[in-house]
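**Sequence, structure tokens**
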Amino acid sequence: MSGLKIAGNEIRVGQPLPWDVFDASGTLLLRRGFVIDTQRALDRLVEDGLFVEDKGGREKSVVTEPVVEKPSALQYIMDARRLLGSPVLDLSGIPDFPGRVRRVAQLIDLACKTNAEVAIASILLLQDHSYVVRHHINTAIVSNLIARAMSYPPEQMQSLTAAALTMNLSMFEIQDKLNDVKGPLNDKIRGLISNHPQQSEQRLRKYGVEDPYWLKCVEHHHEY
């Protein structure tokens, strides 16, 4: 994109971003006001490459004062939907796939932390998107709120939320079509449904996920 690259010393952990932040291809990653809450998350983002729009040759400046206004819970959820992307997207072509999912998980976490009631309400009110995206976002919201109520450690809560976002990874391409099927499913489709937790776990490994808790949650998410 045509923009200015951001250096690590221009963003501070715990302070709201003073601009919208993009990746090298121009995809919006984080909105103005988003708070990066750990040095590890900041280092990962800077390593991937962050850019800010160059409006009229405006020079970047080091953050000196926090931005007062922060995104709402609903805005965090809408950003999570957008960043999760289309179910027909070629996931193998996403650089740092685990990092991108964790950024979506962080947006879900911020939505739940900002206003749990709004996060829950969004499950009922936001019906205008692909079922695949809605289902995974909604499951991530519920998982995050349960983990929060059970006082999960932050890292484990993020891994659980990431697992909810990717639990049906092997079915992304066909899940919307399955919802339109009338009558009984054939043996091939039934087999795909039955095996999708293990196949999703295998795909996650292929895309670079190494977090054992994340992988375990996906592999066993249909156990009961």
The chain has a mean pLDDT of 79.
